[in-house]
Amino acid sequence: MKEILKKIPKIELHCHLDGSIRPETMYELLLKEGEKLEVKDIKEFEKLVSVREECDSLKEYLKKFSYPLKVVQRGENIERITYELLEDLSKQNVKYVEIRFAPFLSMEKGLSFDEVVSSVLKGMDRAKEEFNILSNAILICMRYDSGENSLKVVEYGEKYLGKGVVAVDLAGNEHDFPPEIHKEAFQLAYEKGYNITIHAGETGIVENIPKSVELLHAKRIGHGIAAIKDPKVMELLKEKNIFLEMCPISNLQTKSVDSIEDYPIRTYLEEGIGVTINTDNTTVSNTTLDKEYEFLMDNLGFSIEDIIKLIDNSVEAAFLPQSEKEYLRKIIKEELSIYKL
Ligand SMILES: O=c1[nH]cnc2c1ncn2[C@@H]1O[C@H](CO)[C@@H](O)[C@H]1O
Ligand SMILES: [Zn+2]
């Protein structure tokens, strides 16, 4: 591990709560629920809930969410895993994080929408008090869900806007469910003043990127790997100042690119597209922001100065008012100066 990466202040914009539950906590909570686990210890369990080399697609990757989903059905669990994720991130010197989750996925055993959202917000408040880490939430609509359910996410979530919730997202199996299914919901979100980010072009479907920008009002795109296929799409991203939330380790696991050399980040930066680096799912992808940056340094020749520029992009792309971005820039600059960076 490049030692300096551990120390520098960082920002996380694309992190799924259910994909980032501490394995020890998940194991404990599953056993408490009486779940029969066919593993002999926590080490084996960790393998069960994170992807290995055998993963060949996004669909395969998404299968890893079956255990996390079992533990996000109680308010106290949701609050705890939010708090613990923020504790872990604060130890890695992450200053600000946007945590995303799909409320409807936590409503399978009777929790209400409000119970789910307020549990996340409680975890965030507690972490802010104790670890001084700032965070906001992004509500996810699931692609396979009906357009009506996505509308409900937008409608029910409105009262939390500006009170911990800053945006809505669309996630899940991109291969079988195009963005336009959810057009109405995102139109409403736009009108209500939500920020919008959409998972698009993650595993090859380039047209989902312009659709997300033009039909769903996306200001940021999750992954966007397929933009490399079409110069017009890259031009659109640049022209509209759409930031990409790239997650290199996850992208390799889902086979978004064939090899590291094909990872399009350099081209995007040369084209003037705003790129940010994120983890996607710390547990499922077995990663951290430090590992993601280290990966860029080891495999794609990024320097620490390049990394600092990427972190500054994350500040710019954050769903925060200018004054809060300025505050983040100030504290980041102060800390970097300690290391003469
Ligand atoms: O990289 C991804 N692409 C698409 N969907 C994802 C990704 N990571 C997680 N999820 C989906 O989002 C849900 C809510 O967090 C997860 O349960 C998973 O199904
Ligand atoms: Zn994601």
TrEMBL record:
InterPro entries: A_deaminase, A_deaminase_dom, Ado/ade_deaminase. Its cofactor is Zn(2+). Catalyzes the hydrolytic deamination of adenosine and 2-deoxyadenosine. Binds 1 zinc ion per subunit. It catalyses: 2'-deoxyadenosine + H2O + H(+) = 2'-deoxyinosine + NH4(+); adenosine + H2O + H(+) = inosine + NH4(+). Keywords: Hydrolase, Metal-binding, Nucleotide metabolism, Zinc. The record marks 223 as: Important for catalytic activity. The active site is at 202 (proton donor). Substrate binds at residues 16, 18, 172. It holds the Pfam family A_deaminase. It comes from Tissierella simiarum. Belongs to the metallo-dependent hydrolases superfamily. Adenosine and AMP deaminases family. Adenosine deaminase subfamily. GO terms for molecular function: hydrolase activity. Zn(2+) binds at residues 14, 16, 199, 280. The gene is add. It is an enzyme of class 3 (hydrolase). Its EC number is 3.5.4.4. The keyword Glycosyltransferase does not apply. Residues 9-333 form the Adenosine deaminase domain. NCBIfam families: aden_deam (TIGR01430). This is Adenosine deaminase. The keyword Metal-binding applies.
